[in-house]
Amino acid sequence: MRKLWKSKRNEPFFDWDTPSPKLSAKLRMVTLPTGPGCRVYFPSEELWVPISIVNENVHILPGIPLLFQQMLTGLEKELVPRIEASSRNIFRLMISTPQPESQMADYLTTLQERVKDRGVKVGSYPRWGKTKNTVTLVGRDQEYVESLVDEVTAQLDGKRISVEGEDDSETDEVVEGV
Fold first, then answer.
1. Per-residue confidence band for 170, with pLDDT thresholds at 50, 70 and 90
2. Is the terminal CB of the chain with fewer CB neighbours within 10 Å at N or C?
3. What are the FAD synthase middle domain coordinates in residue numbering (predicted)?
């Protein structure tokens, strides 16, 4: 941080060795977890803000949108291989339903409880401004996930889709206040 801060800031001399409120504030920005399973990654020599990786979970800390975007771009070579490796053999299917989340919540909660031991995750995604919502079933056992489709579509008055919104029509816009 000292090296990058000094080279990128139009700041008069700063004393990194004498305790001061300004030094304390700067040090808080780089106080990160240490120890086994912890590492710090600087995605770019242009960015003085590090990314913390703890037990292979990535923590991106900046609140400034442009800085966050630059960090993600710099992290691409670190994240893409991890995403590709973790998504192998994962099967996902989507079901479009006219039911609002509140109407299907009990069923989806019960379904998630029932299928979690088989490694299946159930997701519900409202589609603002549309009359249909999307439910997903994700798991590694494609045959098992497929075996749930008939039940889920029947319970949700739904339809299996390949792409979210593929069964939308011009008349599917929600009328405000309805």
1. low
2. C
3. 94-161
